Amino acid sequence: MNAQRAIPAALLAMLLVAAGCAPSASPSSDPAAPIRVVTTSTVFGDLVHQTGGDQVAVTSLVPPGVDVHTYQATPADLQDLAEADLVIMNGLGLDDWLADMIESVSGGPQSRVPIVRLAEDGVDYELLPGEEPDTRNPHLWMDVSYAIQYVERIETALVAAAPAKAADIGRSSEAYRAAISELDGWVREQISTIPVENRKLVTFHDALPYFARAYGLEIVGVAVEAPGQDPSAGEIAALIDAIRMSGVKAIFSEDQFPTALIDQIARETGATVVADLYDDSLGDPPVTSYESVIHWDVEKLVEALR
Fold first, then answer.
1. What is the pLDDT of residue 4?
2. Is 197 left (phi over 0), alpha (psi -120 to 50) or beta?
3. pTM for this structure?
4. Which residue of 103, 216, 232, 278 has the lowest C-beta tally within 10 Å?
5. Which residues have a Cβ under 8 Å from the Cβ of 147 and sit 6 or more positions away?
């Protein structure tokens, strides 16, 4: 996975020339203009939009349905970054290619645009191990209580970027935090309807550990340790054995990933395949917001496990 993330960095010099763009000297000077925010995934873009309301104009670099882990930059992305007032990313390895992009646009490690890494430096985050040694899993927002902390960090960054908009941003953020606090309670109610012995699952890749920890599920295994890296025959056999021994009823995957591997595992184990979850990306209607991602995934999980 590290090698794949290095590909965009190697490509950026060529893209910068092709785009013919350079960073603007300063953020927008019009106090009435919305704050121009660039995010990596559409999920973070929605969090910013809901937090800032009409005080923000959001551009998400990674299109819906595209894997944020292995995304490759385009000249248009570089232009968006050059015009941004604020950049929002996740960090913890999910979208570190963006830091390489920003360095290329700015000509060095220092950038005039503020960058917020939502999953890093959070005082209340209890991080889980990542897919590779000495890393941490980046998918914190799948625990809705952590998404609330994301919103708080976004609000702080937006107000810092445009203090005159603080009151409007504060009202929008407060309403949104209340809405997703209710969402957290709804998730807990829905998961409680699954028999305790059925609260076990396998996922395509390691996207749901924070969700599982928060809501009382057990992840028995993952099919692919890192996106873009195929498991060995031995790893597949070990996962099949784990599914059989634990009685896992369903294997879950995100909409953007191929299903051939998990279909194979399902044939060997009798587990059901649910291949249309969302986590790193929004999708087609009705999955067009962070809240709808959580609703959709929980309904699919409960249907398969209950």
1. 39
2. alpha
3. 0.89
4. 232
5. 47, 140, 141, 180, 290
Handedness of CA 86, 155, 159, 52 (dihedral sign): positive
Helix (H, G, I), strand (E, B) or coil at 181: helix
Planar angle of CA 255, 261, 264, nearest 5 degrees: 120
Are 84 and 37 spatial neighbours (Cβ–Cβ below 8 Å)?
A: yes
Q: What 3-state DSSP class applies to 218? A: strand
Residue 109: the pLDDT is 52
Q: Which domains does the chain have, with CATH numbers?
A: 2-186 (3.40.50.1980), 188-305 (3.40.50.1980)
Residues 170, 274: Cα–Cα separation, whole Å: 38
Measured CA to CA, the distance from residue 60 to residue 288 in angstroms comes to 13
What one-letter code names the amino acid at 300?
Answer: K
Secondary structure (3-state) at 1: coil
pLDDT at 71 over 70: yes
Give the pLDDT score at 106. Answer: 62
pLDDT for residue 103 is more than 80: no
